[in-house]
Amino acid sequence: FCLYVAKLEVRIGRRNQLEPFQIFWKIIRLQLYQPDSFDFRTAGGNFAILIFTIMQCRLLLDMYQTLLLSALLQPVADNPFRDAREMVRLIGSQRFKLITNYIGNWYFEELHNSNVSHYRSLRLAIAQNPIHIASTVPKALDKVLKGGYIYPIQEDSIGMQMAKERCGAGLVFVSEGMPEVSSHLIFRRDSRFVKLFERSIIMNLDFVRRTFKKYFHSNFKLTKENFDNNYLTKNLTERIGHHCKEESSFSSYLNHKGRWHFGINGIELKPLDFGSMFGVMLVALLGLLLSFLAFCAEIYYNRKKKRLMFRLRMRRALAEQAHLTAAAQVFVKQSVQTKIGDRLQSPTIGELHACFGEIYI
């Protein structure tokens, strides 16, 4: 773009010659924070290089450094898989096995009967890798902690609460791509309990959300100490309940401490990526567009100015003849007037372009 601007400046007479190497070298020095004098002869070109300096040499380079730092400071992912598709692939390769304490769970019923793609692929995976059945939930969790087992568990079940009570010691919870089901309350038609239940659900909606978030999203741990007889005599910290320890990693600090500090509770902070810089890129594009429009307006103004100057020179050329003839009639002899008239009948090239010098008689 800078070469294009410089080339047009040469064509409109604002620049003596085009020097591509010098322009390229000055841009490199801008990138290295060693700027040289970089001035265009047009306002549009200067505005374009201003936008380039602010966006490319300052904002984008600083954001790139931040992107590298955020990528380096992210902890190593300890999840064996990220979503349900990878889970099925690991089970099919026999690196992991499914385990459960209750084979009559809705998940396993759907596994044997549903035609959803997740269940179909999982059926093929467990054909050579059968499901392991544990006697109780704690034993199933112990197997998972030892490694090599995946425990399908419902989010609001007692098994999930027991898993949360272990404070995530070696447990990883993955819900991406897992199937979801809805629960319903079934009543007899025109039952008098329908309106009562609807009103009760609406009245307790905030309490239900608070309770669910408390026990399943806030790492609140239930223990026997919570129901001790001396519970009311304990200090405030113990009365609140037991919480699992927060991870000491940098990402955990951002997701919990930083989330509360910036007042965006419920939204996990993400590292800087190119999608989050869309606004910056949009501002840069708008700035370059404005500079291009200013440059086009300047070219249009320059052409109009040239046409106007040409018309003024033509008018001057026509007026000079009349003025010169009138002056000769007043101040010059008849013989000199004749020479001037002959000269005006055959003007030179310089006189035609209104570049009058001395007239020798």
TrEMBL record:
Listed transmembrane segments: 277-301
Domain of life: Eukaryota
UniProt entry keywords in alphabetical sequence: Membrane, Transmembrane, Transmembrane helix
InterPro entries named in the record: T25E4.2-like
PANTHER family: PROTEIN CBG02446-RELATED, SOLUTE-BINDING PROTEIN FAMILY 3_N-TERMINAL DOMAIN-CONTAINING PROTEIN
Protein name as annotated: Lig_chan-Glu_bd domain-containing protein
Naturally occurring in which organism (per UniProt): Meloidogyne incognita (Southern root-knot nematode worm)
